[in-house]
Each structure stands twice: as C-alpha cells, then as structure tokens.
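tool=predict chain=A
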Amino acid sequence: MKIVVDVNIILSALIKDSITRRIILDSGFEFYFPENSLHKIRKYQNYIIEKSCVSELEYNEILTKLLTYIKIVPTEELLSYWDKAKEIMEKVDPEDVVFIAASLSIPNSVIWSNDSDFDKQNKVKVLKTKDILELFLH
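tool=predict ok
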C-alpha cells in the first residue's frame, strides 16, 4: 500500500514510541512525504524534544530512522498536480494542498491523516490512524 503521510503523523511518531511509529517502522507499507513540507517537521523540533524528553541527538536519530522508511517526494514531481490539488483543497486548508498533490502524483495512493479537513473533499482517499492500524494488524 502506498501512503502519503501528513505532518502530524510524523510528529506523533517522533514524540513517542507509539503505534504510529510502529506502523511506519514495521508495516512494510510504502510511505511518502512531500519534500516541501520537511520544514514543518524542523519547525517543531524543540517542541518535540521537550514533549518527548529526548536529547537533540536522540531526536535526530529517531527522525533519521523514520525517514529511512519514508520516501521524500521531490517538489518538482508535484508541480503538474498542483493546480488540481489547489482546486480540491485550497478553500478548505491551503497547507494541505501539498498532500493532495503528493497523493495525486503517486498512483493508487492514500493519505494518512487524522485532520478532519481532508474529510471535506472526496477526490483523494484519506485514512485515519485507526484505519491504517486495522490494515497493519491484518
């Protein structure tokens, strides 16, 4: 299964050794993340370090390990899908356009997000953590 992960999914996996982290590391699913959203992960680095009570070194080790299981989708690959993604998501949440574009660029992919804004569109399939967990366990 090809899954585009939302920022909050990665943040969750960074904060604690949770089911979210286990799914990314152990499921065998193909995970993708848009290159131009990496800055959002960096933006929350200090918050994650504080919340998870890890050192900066440990944070970097966890992030590096997670990113070995997540393929980064280059921005150039999203450009031809950007206008369609904007039509779908810009009025709902402009920050989520990039995830729609990433999913459109990867055939037969879904988005993994618990963000209810994605529920306001019906062009791209979106699964919540509970749905991904069910697939992981079966």
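The longest helix spans residues 56-67. The chain is about 55% helix and 15% strand.
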